[in-house]
Amino acid sequence: MLTAILVFTVLALVLGALLGYAGQAFRVEGDPLADKIDALLPQTQCGQCGFPGCRPYAEAIAAGEADINRCPPGGEATIKALADLLGVEPKPLDAEVGEEKPKSVAWIDEQVCIGCTLCIQACPVDAILGAPKMMHTILVDECTGCELCVAPCPVDCIHMIPLKVELDQWRWPNPEQRREIAEDAPSVMAGEAKPSALLQAEAPSGSPLPVGPRDDGKAS
Amino acid sequence: MTEFLLILISTVLVNNFVLVKFLGLCPFMGVSRKLETAMGMGLATTFVLTLSSVLSHLAQEYLLAPFGLEYLRTIAFIVLIAAVVNFTEMALRKASPLMHNILGIYLPLITTNCAVLGVALLNVQEDHNLAQAAVYGLGAALGFTLVLVLFAAMRERLVAADVPRPFQGTPIGLVTAGLMALAFMGFAGLVKV
Question: How far is B94 from B98, CA to CA, in rounded Å?
Answer without folding.
Answer: 10
